[in-house]
Design goal:
about 20% strand; 2 domains; 16 helices; alpha+beta; single chain
Amino acid sequence: MPMSYELFIGLRYTRAKRRNHFISFISMTSMVGIALGVAALIVVLSVMNGFQHELRSRILGVASHLQISGVNNELADWPRVTELIGSNPEIQGSAPYIMAQGMLSFGQAVQGAVVRGVLPDKEDRVAEIGAHIKAGDFNALRPGEFGIVLGVDLARMLGAAIGDKVVVMAPQGQFTPTGVMPRLKQFRVVGIFQVGMYEYDAALALIHLDDAAKLYRMGDKVSGLRLKLTDLYRAPEVSSALSRQLNAYGNYYVTDWTEQHANFFRAVQMEKHVMFVILTLIVAVAAFNIVSTLVMAVTDKRADIAILRTLGASQRSIMRIFIVQGALIGVIGTLLGVVGGVLIAVNIETIVPFIEHLFGVQFLAKDIYYISDLPSELQWGDVAVITTVSLVLSLLATLYPSRRAANTHPAEALRYE
């Protein structure tokens, strides 16, 4: 295909050795700056996506997509409610639960925890606790045997292991001739789980539903029903539909995971947007260097511009020549940044442990952060947006110098040549 002379001259100016080496240095700096900015954007947004996905999967691996409870967080007729919602095709599984606070003690150690009473065969339908068992057996929770499954950090703080007996104290007391005494029950540790989220690993204990009912004197009542949906992103719509359906039979409260853990996901999403804006400034600064490069290039090529004008080149053609020259810097910098950013984002789970091992540091301490590993999830939609923003900024940076070149007067430029 024939190449227009504007493109030909613009590419020639870009490839040619410059008399002024400072212009070449500024061009290289602009290209590297754009590449670093684009790569940083891709890596940071991929890490934010990874945090969001990891946070969601770990929370919903222990929590539930939907919860149904009654007045005072008690549900007396849960088998009837299970039957009412059973025809909903969006619901993949349901399980009753009893949730209460408790104090666990073993030896000299005492720790507060959330005690959840579950039915192991039904709990596997709504959560993934069984898949995260590190020691023992989740199905060893049997009614009347008073077994308990502890989070790995809770077990470590108590100093308890499989087979040890821990004492669970319920906050509700019982009246005796000597006064109010707390209710105590000894449980045998039958399992230890680790979901990788400190909030649950350090503060959650699971016991059988019947044992929880006896300890907390719930009788035939439960705290509510936990539901798992076929599509977790439709939780708000399903929650609204179930609320309308169940309110025809009594007072029921339906909540979904987007309400229960909204702060986590809003914080991550807000941080993602803020980081995008901040890191885009890096690309903007690098694009501003293109302005400096082209202004100096226009000054350096004033005689060439004047000759082209006298040969019949229009102002628009002169603009195109320098737009090509500046846009090429942006395109090369953007492509380098995209390649580098994608390679780092894809391999960040290998790169970060290597750096931690090399320097003997840990970026995300497990006892401080919910997620102790640096996850990454590359989304090509983000890459496309970043590439577009970078190219647009680079193109905008070429307009002023190109316009200035087009306004060069041939007679003035050639006066002292």
